[in-house]
Design brief:
Blueprint lengths: L2 E9 L5 H14 L3 E7 L2 E8 L1 H12 L9 E6 L7 E5 L20 E2 L1 H10 L8 E5 L3 H4 L2 E3 L13 H7 L8 E5 L4 H12 L5 E4 L2 H9 L4 E3 L1 E2 L6 E2 L9 E2 L6 E2 L1 H5 L16 H4 L1 H6 L6
Parallel strand pairs: 2-5, 6-10, 7-9, 9-10
Antiparallel strand pairs: 1-3, 1-4, 2-3, 8-11, 12-13, 14-15
């Protein structure tokens, strides 16, 4: 597989987006990279794909900027380019939570590395004997593709719902160690800070998210694949593209039976959403795959 796919983010104050945006776009285009880079006052979030040389050259230039010198990257490989365009987009937040008081650049919640998490899950408790609760901070359609064993899933439809849901269920977590997780780490970083702020002191974020967990320890204690926001749809614990497919209109997981239906049109609709507003807007969605984690 010759295409290198990278996912990365960093919470860091950016006050030069107007000049940084065109510079990054020009550099990516010159290296024949495709994907999405999000820039916001709180930081950067990117999913890119291209040749090994192109990815390495991009990272070398980006890390030459002291703000991104320690940017951590998750890698996977594919046989084909999973993105159709190269976009660099300004945003209010690199992951929308609508909680301005949560500022990861000012200090993050404690993280837990994949090897330690696996050891805790193997034992059924943390090092101090508390039960470990895995908390999925992703949206419902992502969770349906795969998640950790017995993970708490509140069927979120957008990340901005998370604070109210957790506040409502706060007592469910008392006396337990909570590990928040997501695809690459960005959502669970904000989530862990918020939970600490409301008094859930034994809260950790899974460093690097599910993708880093797969990279370091494989699929132990995880069922299914990991949804990703590109045309591969999902990755296996071996970080290879899975056979899972998704409807681009409503984002439902599409089964083999669904694909045989006359109501299924690849990239446009599936039996669950045929005739809906989601199906009508599918062509626009397909043209600009969202980068979210």
């Amino acid at each position: 597989m010759s295409i290198v796919n990278i996912a990365a983010y960093k919470f860091v104050t950016l006050d030069d987006i107007a000049t940084l945006r065109p510079a990054l776009l020009e550099h990516c285009q010159a290296l024949d990279l495709k994907g999405t880079i999000l820039l916001a006052p709180e930081g950067i979030n990117l999913f890119l794909a291209g040749s090994r040389d192109g990815i390495d050259a991009f990272l070398a230039r980006l890390r030459a900027d002291v703000r991104f010198a320690d940017l951590a990257v998750k890698e996977s490989l594919s046989e084909t380019q999973p993105f159709r365009r190269m976009l660099v987009r300004p945003k209010k937040e690199i992951i929308t939570m609508k909680m301005p008081v949560i500022k990861p650049a000012d200090g993050r919640a404690p993280g837990i590395d994949p090897a330690t998490l696996k050891r805790w899950l193997d034992a059924g408790q943390d090092d101090e004997g508390r039960p470990v609760v895995m908390l999925d901070t992703r949206n419902d359609f992502e969770v349906d593709v795969g998640t950790f064993d017995n993970a708490v899933d509140y069927r979120l439809t957008k990340f901005s719902e998370f604070p109210d849901v957790i506040a409502e269920h706060r007592k469910d977590f008392e006396g337990k160690t909570i590990v928040s997780f997501c695809t690459g780490g960005i959502r669970c970083e904000k989530a862990a800070i918020y939970m600490r702020d409301i008094g859930l002191e034994h809260t950790y974020q899974l460093d690097g998210g599910i993708l880093k967990y797969f990279e370091d320890v494989g699929g132990a204690h995880y069922q299914g694949d990991c949804f990703v926001f590109d045309y591969r749809t999902a990755l296996t614990p071996e970080l290879a593209p899975s056979t899972t497919q998704q409807c681009f209109a409503c984002r439902a997981v599409v089964t083999a039976e669904d694909r045989r239906s006359s109501d299924y049109i690849e990239g446009e609709q599936c039996p669950r959403c045929v005739g809906s507003r989601a199906a009508e807007s599918a062509p626009q969605k397909a043209a600009t795959v969202a980068t979210t984690d």
